TrEMBL record:
A single GO molecular function term of this UniProt record: 5'-flap endonuclease activity
Entry-linked InterPro entries: 3'-5'_exonuclease_dom, 5-3_exonuclease, 5-3_exonuclease_C_sf, DNA_polI_H3TH, FEN, HhH2, PIN-like_dom_sf, RNaseH-like_sf
Taxonomic source organism: marine sediment metagenome
Keyword Membrane: no
Keywords assigned: DNA-binding
The protein, known as: 5'-3' exonuclease domain-containing protein
SMART domains tied to this protein: 53EXOc, HhH2
Sequence ranges assigned to domain 5'-3' exonuclease in this UniProt record: 1-158
BP GO terms, sorted: DNA replication, Okazaki fragment processing
């Protein structure tokens, strides 16, 4: 299968864009995902298949479950939010209240244009206080279309290309799939360059300002580094920064404690910030993160 990626764009948006283009040519599209966010892309020609529930979801199935139209899903999530995607929603509005509003009004803009028609005082007050978060949440939830520049032929899968996946399977250590390819071809080949297993690594704790300066200088010279934040909670909008990890080598990582509740000596955020901030803001230095939305909101 062809790998598709576009710089600065999320996979959801790319999938949505391709499906939209296929629909325009009269083709069906199926998203194989359990991610409910992708349900907003459902059309008469686009479906979502949930592999965990073994269920195909079309417009009818969606409306039977959610009790409002597909087009109102961004409206609904602008109110309830989604902590897994760092979407705040409107404080004080839960699933029941959001469903009622989605059934009564056409869109988020419609509910704010007709706020006086919201009968429940609790919902009305929450909407008045959370207007900014509501529109931000809707923007974060909505899928964004950009031309994919892919033709139907570009993404067509040919079963004869199955064997071409072997080098990737070797790299990822997918032994069963490698063996399956070899059995189909009638040969059994030992990998030329088996993936190396890391057996030793060094973790260095940064507790002095001079140590932090040395690490920052090293990261700057290398020109890239991996970054991870440690927090005291899973909600990035409420969590406090406890520490940060950096690495620019295969076997060495650096940990900077900032707010540990122990007697161990460590730098405060105020002490570390003048050194960390320029490093993070320098666009010429590449940063690699996992779950980047969470880290960005924390920082």
């Amino acid at each position: 299968l062809r790998q598709i990626a576009q710089p600065t764009r999320e996979a959801d948006d790319i999938m949505y864009s391709i499906a939209k283009e296929r629909n325009k040519e009269g083709d069906f599209a199926i998203f194989i995902t359990s991610d409910k966010d992708m349900s907003q892309a459902i059309t008469p020609l686009t479906f979502r298949f949930d592999p965990f529930k073994n269920k195909m979801i079309d417009e009818k199935a969606f409306e039977e479950k959610w009790r409002f139209a597909v087009k109102k899903l961004p409206f609904y999530f602008s109110l309830v939010g989604d902590t897994s995607d760092n979407i705040p929603g409107v404080r004080g509005i839960g699933k029941k209240g959001a469903t009622e509003l989605a059934q009564q009004f056409e869109s988020l803009q419609d509910v704010y244009d007709n706020l006086k028609k919201v009968e429940k005082k609790r919902l009305k007050t929450a909407l008045e206080k959370g207007k900014e978060d509501a529109f931000l949440s809707e923007k974060l939830f909505l899928l964004q279309y950009e031309p994919s520049h892919l033709t139907k032929e570009d993404s067509t899968f040919d079963i004869k290309n199955w064997a071409k996946a072997r080098p990737l399977f070797e790299k990822l250590d997918f032994k069963t799939l490698v063996r399956e390819i070899d059995e189909q071809s009638g040969t059994l080949i030992e990998p030329e360059d088996p993936m190396k297993k890391m057996t030793k690594y060094n973790l260095k704790k940064i507790v002095a300002i001079e140590e932090l300066q040395d690490v920052a200088q090293k990261l700057k010279q290398v020109g890239f580094f991996g970054l991870d934040t440690e927090t005291d909670g899973l909600n990035p909008l409420q969590a406090n920064l406890v520490g940060m990890s950096f690495s620019c080598e295969d076997d060495t990582a650096y940990y900077l404690p900032l707010a540990h509740k122990t007697d161990e000596q460590h730098l405060s955020l105020e002490q570390a910030l003048p050194i960390i901030k320029p490093l993070l803001e320098d666009a010429s230095i590449k940063k690699y993160l996992h779950n980047v939305k969470f880290d960005l909101l924390v920082l």
